[in-house]
Amino acid sequence: MKSFDIVIIAMFVALMGVAANITVIFPFLVIAGIPLTFQPFIAVLAGAILGSKKGALAMVVYTIVGLFGAPVFAQLQGGPGIFVRPTFGFILSFIVVAFVVGKIIEKSRDPQLATYCIAGIVGLAFNYLIGTNWVYGAYVFGFDAPDQFTYTIVWLGMLPLFIKDIAFTIAAGIIAHKLPEFVKRPVVGTRVQGGS
Amino acid sequence: MLQNIVIGQYIPVDSPLHRLDSRAKILCLLALAVIVFLANEFWSYTALVTTVILFVVLSRVPLKFFLKGLLPIFILIIFTFFLHAFFTNEGAVLFSVLGFSVYSGGIEQGVYISVRIGSLVVFASLLTLTTTPIDLTDGFESFLRPFKRFGLPAHEMALMMSISIRLIPTLLLEADRILKAQAARGADFAKGSLRTRLETLTAFIIPLFVRSFKRAEDMATAMDARGYRGGEGRTKLRVLKWRARDTIACIIVAGVGVVLALLRDF
């Protein structure tokens, strides 16, 4: 792994931390009392820009950094206590999101704007599939939720957020498609010996 | 506001828990996360609460820091409590409100589950309150080292963690600066329809990414210039040491697990 790869992956971890707390910078993004986050947006970009393996690695590191107490999760939360939250599945799903998005773009020979957008939406689908099922599982197994707490209720609760994320994901696709012309790839950088 | 964000939760006091090796503490937390779920009736929950109180006292961390960790989870606990109070229909009917009957079994279950979540959060806070992020990263790296032969970049991951923690405040400042620069050029992020807002947002995101990449490039060049070549043969200023007290701590936690398993109602 090159030094640049190490630093850029760390950079995406930090970007995730900032994106999760974007309302600190943009207070107007608190809509109806719910602070919006840009995490799926950055997760999609990580997959699209870094590729499947490095993108997924960035999300793994993000999860661990958060569990170790850095306030990188939404509302400046951090620490192993997050694991108890029913929404932890969403954080874990970012790993899959970045990997899937990266894989789709790597597989296509000539990625167009549409490829980026489709990859982002497929990634977002994984985000919600894993996250929502985790919420349901957490309530049923972790909190012994009674039978009245049904699978449909969980999905209905996710619907408003899903609509917002669709819009963000398409924006992510457009930016991921545009970004390479703005970001010059590094020419210098020796290969690290001994590293994988 | 941006400057007030505290990275990490470490409280520097001297206590038996602070002196433990970070690896021992990580192992104990993993074990406790399973042990918490063993409790399922009055006496096992009493034993669990006693353990929590004992550990908190041992850590010598002021109580308010634990409360701070519990606060965000508080809504979750309340929600779960009411979910159980209203929907678990066991035991005698205590009273009825608006057609809902509250049973004694429901209240009992609600209290138990709240205690379970609460103890988990307190145990988790103990780890980050008594261990520095650097120690945690080192402990994490030494756990992952054996997996290196399967292609897991343990050292690189630990380095990325340290770098990213350092980069968060930098990025927040950077974001603030870009925001002000674009506002000075007339960008208004708070007005217009959702579509125009998203379009304006690109005026924020593109510079943020460009600057991030530039910074990463500079940093990588600096690392290369100083001869960074990965984890192979690299020595450390502070070396983790496993002492007798770390083994004792693990045995105590295992003991708690055995006690809870014995008290538990099958």
Q: Would you give an account of this structure?
A:
The complex is a heterodimer of chains A (196) and B (266). By secondary structure, chain A is an all-alpha fold. Chain A has a single domain (3-178), classed as Arp2/3 complex 21 kDa subunit ARPC3 (Orthogonal Bundle). Chain A contains seven helices and two strands, in the order H-H-E-E-H-H-H-H-H. Chain A has a two-stranded antiparallel sheet. In chain A, helix 1 packs antiparallel against helix 3, helix 1 (3-20) packs across helix 4 and helix 3 (39-50) crosses helix 6 (113-142). In chain A, 53% of the residues are buried. Mean pLDDT of chain A is 81; it is low at 186-196. Chain B is mainly alpha-helical. Chain B has one domain. Chain B has a two-stranded antiparallel ribbon with strand order 1-2. In chain B, strand 1 (93-97) and strand 2 (100-103) form a beta hairpin. In chain B, helix 2 runs parallel beside helix 9. The radius of gyration of chain B is 25 Å and the shape is flat. The model of chain B has no long low-confidence stretch (mean pLDDT 84). The interface between A and B is large, with 70 and 79 residues. Chain A: The chain crosses the membrane at residues 6-34, 55-76, 82-101, 113-131, 151-176.
State mean pLDDT of chain A (0 to 100 scale): 81
Biggest beta sheet attributes of chain A: 2 strands, antiparallel
| Gyration radius over CA of chain A | 17 Å
The assembly state of the depicted protein chains is heterodimer
Order of helices and strands of chain B: HHHHEEHHHHH
What is the terminal-to-terminal distance of chain B? 52 Å
Number of helical segments with 4 or more residues of chain B: 9
- Low-pLDDT ranges of chain A: 186-196
Q: Total domains of chain B, how many?
A: 1
Q: What CATH architecture of chain A would you give?
A: Orthogonal Bundle
Question: How many discrete domains of chain A?
Answer: 1
Structural class of chain B: mainly alpha
Question: What proportion strand of chain B?
Answer: under 5%
Pfam family, one (chain B): CbiQ
Membrane topology (chain B): Multi-pass membrane protein
GO cellular component, one term (chain B): plasma membrane
Protein name (chain B): Energy-coupling factor transport system permease protein
